[in-house]
TrEMBL record:
Cofactor(s) this protein cannot do without: Mg(2+); Mn(2+)
Subcellular location: Cytoplasm
Enzyme class: oxidoreductase
Subunit and partners: Homodimer.
Name of the protein in question: 3-isopropylmalate dehydrogenase
Cross-referenced InterPro entries: IsoCit/isopropylmalate_DH_CS, IsoPropMal-DH-like_dom, Isopropylmalate_DH
This enzyme's EC code(s): 1.1.1.85
Ranges of residues in domain Isopropylmalate dehydrogenase-like: 6-353
Chief place of localization: cytoplasm
Entry's family note: Belongs to the isocitrate and isopropylmalate dehydrogenases family. LeuB type 1 subfamily.
Natural source organism: Cohnella fermenti
Record lineage: Bacteria, Bacillati, Bacillota, Bacilli, Bacillales
Residue numbers marked as site, Important for catalysis: 143, 192
Binding sites annotated in the UniProt record for Mg(2+): 224, 248, 252
């Protein structure tokens, strides 16, 4: 019998509660298979928290997260709240929770399942061997710099500032080198050092740290070129490390190598083992409430939680194997189905994954 692990569950808005519901079934199945004990504590977050508590990130939710060993997050936001005042914007909540929990490292694996190559817009031969990780800096850069409006000579102006300090760059870059060391030992550092001062500092820092990792093959790639190469030769990338906004954009692009954003899981980590796990996708207001969202990104996020926070390697493997088995058997949600008329719903996909889980 293992010790009780506390998981904060913040389902959020739109399809958040739908996909999190399936991930919880998977958690429960591992209790049965491995004898684990999970204590789930639910918190309000995002639009639903604005409606019920007047703020996207209530203190109570933050406390639940801080008291937990890990956080499972669905997604937040939606048209009802997206144009609200600065204080009430759901992204204020998302950015706030990342900062408050010290989650500076966002790991987003993009694994192409062989049987899903037909779901991607790229040719199967281009996708061959694609298995990459985007390591995205998560608590700095333009997302967190000063932003304001002012009256300029030609009318109203808006200003967003991008700031990085050496410490912020060092810690994420070291993590990326470490991850590359556990994989194919190739690291691509993505920046815009031909234009941006923050990118120049980024590149200098990467070059200063690189000699500490002599067995890692390092390349610097400009972000515009990286966006293009991801579609031209995705298998040439293994670990990509980049700043906050570039990582946001490149990871959504990488999602389409896998067939759908509904396939991309993520882990947000700090210095210790604590982590926040969430699908890369958002609350998908266009399909919310229809029971058709793909729960696989959230289910695979649980596998990441098991491996990275709890050290439950075997259980993580069981989840990943079950997902592969269900996909290999031809089951598809609408986003990854070639024949949409045969697509199954969120609950059916979750049930199939749970049924396929075996030691
Ligand atoms: N981490 C988060 O909570 C997060 C991430 C991204 C966006 N958002 C928020 O979500 C809201 C909607 O944003 P968006 O539309 O730009 O991005 P989105 O990721 O929610 O949706 C983009 C497209 O992908 C589809 N999609 C997303 N997840 C899917 C899934 N699991 N299965 C099937 N299809 C899926 C949607 O239907 C939509 O067509 C916004 O308020 C945005 O701020 C939140
Ligand atoms: C909703 C938004 C603030 C968020 C981000 O840009 O970080 C999302 O796109 C993500 O990728 O988690
Ligand atoms: Mg994003």
């Amino acid at each position: 019998m293992s010790e009780v692990k506390k998981i904060a569950v913040i389902a959020g808005d739109g399809i958040g509660p739908e996909v999190v519901g399936e991930a919880i079934k998977v958690l429960k199945k591992t209790e049965e298979l491995f004898g684990y004990k999970f204590e789930l504590e639910h918190g309000l977050f995002g639009g639903i928290a604005i409606d019920e508590k007047g703020t996207p990130l209530p203190q109570e939710t933050l406390d639940i997260c801080k008291n937990a060993d890990a956080v499972l997050l669905g997604a937040v936001g939606g048209p009802k709240w997206d144009n609200n005042s600065k204080e009430l914007r759901p992204e204020t909540g998302l950015l706030g929770i990342r900062k408050a929990l010290g989650l500076f490292s966002n790991i987003r694996p993009a694994v192409v399942f062989d049987c899903l190559k037909d779901a991607s817009t790229l040719k199967p031969e281009v996708l061959e061997g694609t298995d990459l990780i985007v390591v995205r800096e998560l608590t700095g850069g333009i997302y967190f710099g000063e932003k304001f409006r002012r009256e300029g000579a030609q009318g109203e102006e808006a200003v967003d500032t991008c700031v990085y300090n050496v410490t912020e760059v060092e810690r994420i870059v070291r993590q990326a080198f470490e991850i590359a060391g556990t994989r194919s030992k190739r690291l691509a550092s993505v920046d815009k050092a031909n234009v941006l001062e923050t990118s120049r500092l980024w590149r200098e820092t990467v070059n200063r740290i690189a000699p500490e990792y002599p067995d890692i093959e390092l390349e610097h790639v400009l972000v515009d070129n990286c966006a293009m190469q991801l579609l031209r030769r995705p298998s040439s990338f293994d670990v990509i490390v980049t700043e906050n906004m570039f990582g946001d954009i490149l990871s959504d692009e990488a999602a389409m190598l896998t067939g759908s954003i509904g396939m991309l899981s993520s882990a947000s980590l700090g210095e210790g083992s604590f982590g926040l796990y969430e699908p890369v996708h958002g609350s998908a207001p266009d399909i919310a409430g229809q029971g058709i969202a793909n729960p696989i990104a959230t289910v695979l996020s649980v596998a990441l939680m098991f491996k990275l926070t709890f050290g439950y390697q075997e259980a993580g493997d069981v989840i990943e194997r079950a997902v592969k088995q269900v996909l290999d058997a031809g089951h598809r949600t609408g986003d990854i189905a070639v024949d949409k008329s045969k697509a199954i719903g969120t609950t059916a996909m979750g049930d199939l994954i749970v049924a396929a889980m075996a030691r």
